[in-house]
């Protein structure tokens, strides 16, 4: 059992009570959310993108994740809702002029001020360090503080002037309730896009599957309204007028004795009144004919042998 040699154990060493719940440091949690990539756990560096749930990523980390979706990745759960690069939006962030970064940290003993942030709100000037709620517009990617959107109510982006709706506003690193609301919006938006694609496909497939039967079977609006007797007389007159026209065309196509026209007769070049130089161009001319002595005595020959 131990406890020999004059050792005096205390009660908390012998009696095991309930474990204390580990409290997460709020400052450390805010630094991890706003300064590090959710997927690769590396420091955020431009280009920075955000998903439809308001989480921050490095763009190159998202591209690597989409190219290699292996089961070994433990951090893939944080980006399982990202199916393509279209599901993320590149953010347009405003730099903080008071941010020095690692410029003065030459000796490695510089104090890190956690209240300072790299980016600020371009309208109000609040620092994006997690103490204030920030959001971005999905249509253009501009980032503002929530206070700026509430104080300056407009339907147009304050920076680029792009029109947006309430559905386009996404809170960055929001609470659990915010994430649940954004997730419901995301699923509804994606379902709407799928239904739109299906309707487009059905519209494209309709004219291909249907034959062009509109000309053969006209609708009731195309049929002229009138008395049955008048319509019957008109059809008879049209047939009678079309008969002599067809006969005239058949007679003109044939000659007097049923022969084709003169232009269609085959004429010999030798009987024509052309010059001898013109006639000598054709094989029917006398100069093109060879005697038996000049002709080759083998069966197959080419014109290059002469």
UniProtKB/TrEMBL annotation:
Residues 226-240 have a biased composition (Basic and acidic residues). GO terms for biological process: DNA replication termination. GO terms for cellular component: nucleus. Residues 193-261 are annotated as: Disordered. Residues 193-202 have a biased composition (Basic residues). Residues 241-253 have a biased composition (Low complexity). PANTHER family: PROTEIN C20ORF43 HOMOLOG, REPLICATION TERMINATION FACTOR 2. Interacts with DDI2; probably also interacts with DDI1. Replication termination factor which is a component of the elongating replisome. Required for ATR pathway signaling upon DNA damage and has a positive activity during DNA replication. Might function to facilitate fork pausing at replication fork barriers like the rDNA. May be globally required to stimulate ATR signaling after the fork stalls or encounters a lesion. Interacts with nascent DNA. Belongs to the rtf2 family. This is Replication termination factor 2.
């Amino acid at each position: 059992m131990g406890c020999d040699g004059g050792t005096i154990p205390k009660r908390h060493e012998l009696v095991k009570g309930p474990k204390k719940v580990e409290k997460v440091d709020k400052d450390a949690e805010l630094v991890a959310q706003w300064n590090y990539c959710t997927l690769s756990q590396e420091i955020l560096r431009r280009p920075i993108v955000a998903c439809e749930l308001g989480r921050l990523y490095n763009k190159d980390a998202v591209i690597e994740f989409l190219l290699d979706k292996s089961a070994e990745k433990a951090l893939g759960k944080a980006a399982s809702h990202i199916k393509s690069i279209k599901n993320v939006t590149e953010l347009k962030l405003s730099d903080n002029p008071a941010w020095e970064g690692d410029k003065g940290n030459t000796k490695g003993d510089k104090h890190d001020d956690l209240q300072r942030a790299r980016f600020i709100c371009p309208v109000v000037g609040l620092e994006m360090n997690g103490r204030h709620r920030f959001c971005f517009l999905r249509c253009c990617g501009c980032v503002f503080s929530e206070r700026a959107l509430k104080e300056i109510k407009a339907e147009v982006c304050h920076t680029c002037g792009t029109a947006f709706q309430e559905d386009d506003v996404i809170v960055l690193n929001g609470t659990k309730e915010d994430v649940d609301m954004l997730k419901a919006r995301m699923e509804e938006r994606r379902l709407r896009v799928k239904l739109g694609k299906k309707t487009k496909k059905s519209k494209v497939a309709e004219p291909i599957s249907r034959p062009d039967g509109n000309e053969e079977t006209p609708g009731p609006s195309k049929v002229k309204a009138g008395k049955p007797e008048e319509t019957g007389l008109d059809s008879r007159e049209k047939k009678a007028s079309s008969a002599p026209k067809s006969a005239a065309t058949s007679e003109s196509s044939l000659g007097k004795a049923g022969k084709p026209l003169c232009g269609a007769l085959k004429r010999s070049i030798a009987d024509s009144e052309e010059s001898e130089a013109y006639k000598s161009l054709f094989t029917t001319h006398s100069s093109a004919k060879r005697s038996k002595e000049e002709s080759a005595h083998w069966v197959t020959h080419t014109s290059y042998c002469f």
